[in-house]
């Protein structure tokens, strides 16, 4: 797996495929596939439908007289594999290079599995149930290998994880010094630190000082190098935008909000403390986006 992460052999193919996926005009549908509405990637959820159907078909293949039911489940798996795959490709196009390399092999394994299950369904439809079972078993092996690769991406490489989840555990609840107010020019994102944690500071023209965790929740990109637009800051790596007032992720691919801080100015010095996010605040963010 380490060699696969470092291999550059398929990088040209990966770049071409990423350009194709990003060029598809999906509008808000892209955020739907990312799972921003759910709060975490939707691809793992959708994968359960084909995998569950195919695993159940494999069980029924061992039960006499269940050929028709097994064939139906194979067909259900083929149909539900399509949205799962498209959500996966949408997420894949916004990953780091090592993750993309593993993701290509993950996708290839799943494509092979879908092809084998299509052959299984065709054989079962023609009444060749033994051949259909053999194709189905081969398909199960292929998608299981793809699932193992997907697990490596998620749990070893952190694809789809919230890269800002740890911040509240590293920063205490008390007010902490941030810096002199004069060090933060209006309308320009500046990198500072609350304790040892990097944050992005934006001083607005009205005088308010907005502070968010600097590491983007999507892939850890530096928000302090991003752009300010319409009261939000845009990550320079993959384009996720976060509202400066409360860190709400207004567009993906980020599926989690950004930790936000309260600020106060005493004697020309700015202090910050972590804002306590509540369910009511999260609900307000959802309602605001729906209103837009």
Structural features, described:
The chain starts with a helix and ends with a helix. The chain has helices at about 1-5, 10-25, 30-35, 45-60, 65-90, 95-125, 130-155, 165-170, 280-290, and strands at about 175-180, 190-195, 195-205, 210-215, 225-230, 230-235, 240-245, 250, 260-265, 270-275. With about 290 residues, it is of the alpha+beta class. It contains nine helices and ten strands. Mean pLDDT is about 90; it is low at about 280-285. Strands 1-10-9-4-3-2 form a six-stranded antiparallel beta sheet. Strands 5-6-7-8 form a four-stranded antiparallel beta sheet, with no helix packed on it. The protein is elongated, with a radius of gyration of 23 Å. The protein has two domains: about 1-155; about 165-290, Rieske Iron-sulfur Protein, CATH 2.102.10.10.
Kindly state the percentage of residues in helix.
Answer: 40-55%
Q: What structural class is derived from the secondary structure elements?
A: alpha+beta
Count of distinct strands: 10
Strand order of the largest sheet: 1-10-9-4-3-2
**Terminal Cα separation, in Å?**
43 Å
Number of domains: 2
- Element pattern in H and E: HHHHHHHHEEEEEEEEEEH
Instruction: Give the biggest beta sheet.
Output: 6 strands, antiparallel
Low-confidence stretches: 278-287
Question: What is the typical, i.e. mean, pLDDT?
Answer: 92
Strand residues, percent: 15-25%
How many DSSP H or I helices? 9
Shape: elongated
